[in-house]
Amino acid sequence: MRLLILSDTHIPRRARDLPARVWEEVDRCDVVIHAGDWCDLASLDALERRAPRLLAVYGNNDGPPLRHRLPEVARAELGGVRFAVVHETGPARGREKRCAGRFPDTDVLVFGHSHIPWDSTAPNGLRLLNPGSPTDRRRQPHHTYLTARAADGALTDVELHALD
Predict the structure, then answer these.
(1) pTM of the full predicted structure?
(2) Which of 4, 7, 66, 95 could be bridged to 62 by S-S, CB 3.0 to 4.6 A?
(3) Nearest to 101 by CA among 80, 121, 126
């Protein structure tokens, strides 16, 4: 399964739409994972229409209409890999240990909120991924998103993509 991993799109506050390159990735993937802070119900509707499958949560900037349609935590097994998605994980310090305790039956935790790309592994093997943001880089050098593959119980080809 080819995965597109997004977070913190902040539409229309930070951009009118997702970058064209991200939409191209949507068309090539099997699953879009979005870790919250959509800010716009229309962007959720657009991704639901275009993505073959969407695994998504709401973020702290998402109001009642988005919270009504999306969970705080989403879980799915994709390609034999157990995923959990959440918006916030708290401070960077101690993140791996904290998340390993909170998500003990998970192989990969996708999160957002900080707009800072993150890829680490907790002592128990939990992989933590934050794709950054394709529309609001904050203090990062680039807007970013992730792609990966999940098959036969393994996550492979995890790649951070920088947008101009």
Answers:
(1) 0.97
(2) 66
(3) 126
Compute how many other C-beta atoms are within 10 angstroms of the C-beta atom of residue 42.
12
Helix (H) or strand (E) holding 162: strand 154-163
DSSP state of 26: H
> Residue with structure tokens 């989403």?
74
pLDDT tens per residue, range 120-147: 999 999 999 999 999 999 889 999 999 9
Find out whether 162 and 144 touch, Cβ atoms under 8 Å: yes
Domain limits, the chain: 2-163
**Residue whose structure tokens are 């996550």:** 155
Digit-coded pLDDT (tens) for 2-46: 999 999 999 998 899 999 999 999 999 999 999 999 999 999 999
Residues in the chain: 164
Residue 137 token pair: 């880089």
CATH of 2-163, one of 3.40.50.300, 3.40.640.10, 3.60.21.10, 1.10.3720.10: 3.60.21.10
